[in-house]
Write a structure and sequence with these properties.
Helix content: 25-40%
Oligomer: single chain
Strand content: 15-25%
Structural class: alpha/beta
Largest sheet: 7 strands, parallel
Order of helices and strands: EHHEHEHEHEEHEHEHEEEHEH
Strand order of the largest sheet: 8-7-6-11-9-12-10
Number of strands: 12
Number of helices: 10
Length: about 270
Amino acid sequence: MKNISSIQNSYIKELIKLQEKSRERKKKKLFIVEGKREISLILKSNYKIKTVLCVDESIEANQDILSALSKEVDTIEITKEVYHKLAYRESTEGIIAVVETIDFSLSNLKFRTENPLVVIMEGIEKPGNIGAMLRTADAANVDAVLIANPKTDMFNPNIIRSSVGCIFTNQIATDSSENIIKFLKEKNINIYSATLQNSNEYFKEDYTKASAIVVGTEATGLTEIWRQGATQNINIPMQGEIDSMNVSVACAIVIFEAKRQRNFIN
């Protein structure tokens, strides 16, 4: 195992850039993941780990991860000082992975069933909201998560953190709203757009057939193309003083209504 003890090391400086800058992640096609749980999920996914860095004092505690790595993965022993310079969070078991990005093209999607349940986020900017919805999508075992008109780098450390690694457990694709709507219609997937305009209460719809649940930004909601292109617009009735809720909460409510209707089978 190699050893790096200085934060001035050129490779560590490269990793810091990957952690901090989206353009570096896109240029190098690499991103940083920290934490035992997250790296364990990567090992079960189609992502490829390039390098693992582990604090010298944490090697024994992370031996299960290190033993599961393929022989092609470089392993580097680092000091606590180096780790804290790279780590995004305070406590993540002293282990970090450098991972290759994957292609999020629509053409790569493969649905498990003939009546898939799909979640679509249009133009969501806050990484925390994206991460929370990825976590919900995993909990509901949806077929895919599509990001329409993405505003945030999907390998942003905040998305990985807030999704608790569920970016690695979901099938994800990104594209324009126009292309995603075309894709859904070609696949005969009903579109349910969460919006107040011309909408029906969400629990009155039938999600047992192939369905896509679409949510937009909290500030402006969905764009006109989704309101016009929907099979049915839907809303969640508000009973308090405010007329909206956090987008990740709203998304979860509709997703699990769909799962309820499907008897939590698929």
